[in-house]
Amino acid sequence: QAQVVESGGGSVQPGGSLRLSCAASGSILSINAAGWYRQVPGKQRELVATITSGGSTNYADSVKGRFTISRDNAKNTVYLQMNSLQPEDTAVYYCNAEVIPGTPPFRLHDYWGQGTQVTVSS
Questions:
Q1: pLDDT tens-digit readout, 2-18
Q2: What is the pLDDT of residues 32-61, one digit of tens each?
């Protein structure tokens, strides 16, 4: 009965910033690993950034130095801080979270958010 919801998308000018949030709720013990993905019409889904339960991060080359993935375990939330946004970053951004349930059986379950639109244009 866990749920993942993204928020924070919008429209910005090149060079602007946005902070996306991925909040997990329901019967949850914690989020294990999580990642942000993005997809543009006519293009396959792209892995943007990942974060492990221990806080280790990885980024796609296209966003290194500009995006930062982080987490707040107390809030069961994962963030994506996006700086120096460029038109090429325009996409629907999706969060994927591995959730440890608070009820048995205690097995990881992969949840996707509904997506949030990010548009970067002049």
A1: 899 999 999 999 999 99
A2: 999 999 999 999 999 999 999 999 999 999
Longest dimension (CA), the chain: 50
Which residues, at least 6 apart from 18, have a Cβ–Cβ distance to it below 8 Å?
8, 9, 10, 12, 82, 85, 118
Beta bridge partners, 84, equal none
Helix (H, G, I), strand (E, B), or coil: what is residue 45? coil
Contact 34, 54 (CB under 8 A): no
Residues 22, 112: Cα–Cα separation, whole Å = 10
Residue indicated by tokens 């994506």 = 80
41 residue type, one letter: P
Among candidates 15, 23, 26, which has minimal Cα distance to 116?
Answer: 23
